Amino acid sequence: MTTAALNEIQSHPSGSVRAGLQDPPLVRAALVALALGFAALFLLLPLAAVFAEAFSGGLSVYWNAIRDPIAAKAIELTLIVAAVSVPANAIFGVAAAWAIARFEFRGKSLLVTLIDLPFAVSPVISGLIFVLLFGAQGVFGLWLVAHGVKIIFAVPGIVLATTFITFPFMARELIPLMQEQGSEEEEAAISLGASGWQMFRRVTLPNIRLGLLYGVVLLNARAMGEFGAVSVVSGHIRGLTNTVPLHVEILYNEYQSAAAFAVASLLALLALVTLVAKRALEWRIRQETRA
Amino acid sequence: MASNRNSVLPGFGLTLGFSILYLSLLVLIPLSVLFFRSASLPLEDFAAAVLSPRALAAYELSFGASLAAAALNAVFGLLLAWVLTRYRFPGRDVVDAFVDLPFALPTAVAGITLTTLLAKNGWLGQILEPLGIQAAYTPLGVTLALTFIGLPFVVRTVQPVLEDLESEAEEAAASLGAGRLQTFLRVLFPALWPALVTGSALAFARALGEYGSVVFISGNMPLRTEIVPLLIVTKLEQYDYAGATAIATVMLVASFALLLAINALQAVGRKRLAGAGAAP
Fold first, then answer.
1. CB-based contact, B4 to chain A, within 8 Å
2. Distance (Å) from the C-alpha of residue B42 to the closest C-alpha of chain A?
3. What's the half-sphere exposure (Cβ side, CA atoms, 13 Å) at A175?
4. pLDDT tens by residue, A191-244
5. Closest CA to A109 of B153, B260, B269
6. How far is the CA of B157 from the CAs of A128, A184, B108, B128, B133, in angstroms?
7. Phi-psi category of A65—alpha, beta or left, where left has phi over 0 and alpha has psi -120 to 50?
8. Measured between CA atoms, how close is A225 to chain B, in angstroms?
9. Do A122 and B177 make contact, defined as CB atoms within 8 angstroms?
10. Cα gap A221→A263, rounded to integer Å
């Protein structure tokens, strides 16, 4: 550092150095206004529009759209799909995180990269690969037809595509969390004579429970809202293979706008609940890591 | 093949075995089928599908609109991340939470909502119409939908870097008489850009494959507003499995190349941060 610069520092009271770190008030105000304007236009306005459109036909239209038996079927299917794919990916996430965060082995970084793979695949392609495997023209097509098993244009295909799309979420949350927590407590439990299962239930599970819950929230939101992949494998059979997002699409394309947005508002509510739960969990996790 | 040095803890074989089995059955084998199918196509059929004028127009729109959306997100994502980490203002927490809305809102809902907003008689369309701007059913609408989808990627990648940035370098610059803009360009931006590029690349990758939020707003006119994922769906609906497979393979290779580039970028970013931390 030059002496001139040192003199400069000494000649300034520390307050003015602080001031040099602050943006001028006018710049601040302009940046905040611009950011808030963008957020209002791109985030708040669409959310408000969902609910405004949903009630544009009045309460009775809203109520009828939601209570429609076909909508009820779609909700039921969406819940079934989430009930299978969320636990499946959660179990995989815990297993993968245990192997990756607790042990050293060759090919570990390759495994981590491969787990992220579904994130790089377009939803449409995620559906397509299962059509290529199990569709009528697919690898197992003839065999499946001969045995009367339907996967594509049926519920199993929807479950498969959704599980593929949401595959990385849990592992992604748990791997860094478990790496950060370290293995001392688990090693202590084992050396004190706990069985593997006891260690998992009494030590690992309580330690990762918030991360696990966080992962489930994200998994669930994505599983219930998935559109592209499900659209390719579902066949859009009303009352049979339509999930809630597909039901919204059909209503919208039939120019039943108010009904489409009424059903969409349920998904928007799910999104809001997800955001609140995500925030609350992030806050709890920060609290715990600080403590 | 695997070596297990940490032998105190149980369950290595079980969890690794299960993970690899599940990964293979659900992800690797299904994905490889796409490549096998593609490889079994006669070369001229593959080329005809992949290089048809309709496919070329779709690549152009998908790459162009995704790039434009990523650029928009780079600017506004950085702005939002900056404002959220540096300033305190009423409603900051709410805005911060809402940044994740595009992650949480199902894409079909985003699609019909943006279309309704931007249609001629929509809240925004009404304002744009007299200005001679048509957003719904044009490439502009596609770009706006992709911007919505990609926003959280940039904000959530840049935000932690801004939070962790050592204030010492900034203080030094200020005490040496650098103006705010100079400090930003010379001190902050060099530390930020790997995260900014990574976030934008993630937004770009997501936009390339995006389907639900775009199909409603694009109008789906072949050669004009047809994105690649939609072209794949259209081919499938016409039972042109070969065509769909060929185009999907091109897309997938592009996405994987992007994923590798992003991984490399993240490594650069980590090195930079570590380097900055170790410097005296």
1. yes
2. 17
3. 19
4. 999 999 999 999 999 999 999 999 999 999 999 999 999 999 998 888 889 999
5. B260
6. 30, 31, 25, 32, 32
7. alpha
8. 4
9. no
10. 16
DSSP A193: T
- Distance of alpha carbon A267 from alpha carbon A245, whole angstroms: 8
The DSSP line for A6-49 is HHHHHHS-HHHHHHHHSPPHHHHHHHHHHHHHHHIIIIIHHHHH
Torsion over CA: A182, A184, A185, A187 (sign):
positive
The CA R_g of chain A, rounded to the nearest whole Å, is 26
Q: What are phi and psi of B187, to 5 degrees?
A: -110, -50
Q: How far apart are alpha carbons A267 and A251 in whole angstroms?
A: 14
Spatial CA neighbour of B10 closest among A90, A201, A207, A102: A102
Domains of chain B by start residue, with CATH: 43-278 (1.10.3720.10)
* Closest of A77, A135, A74 to residue A264, by C-alpha: A74
Q: Measure CA of the first residue to CA of the last residue in chain A; give whole Å.
A: 40
Q: How far apart are CA B156 and CA B70, in angstroms?
A: 14
Each residue of B231-264: pLDDT tens digit?
999 999 999 999 999 999 999 999 999 988 988 8
CB count in 10 Å sphere of residue B216: 25
What dihedral angle (degrees, nearest 10) is formed by the CA atoms of B29, B35, B37, B38? 170
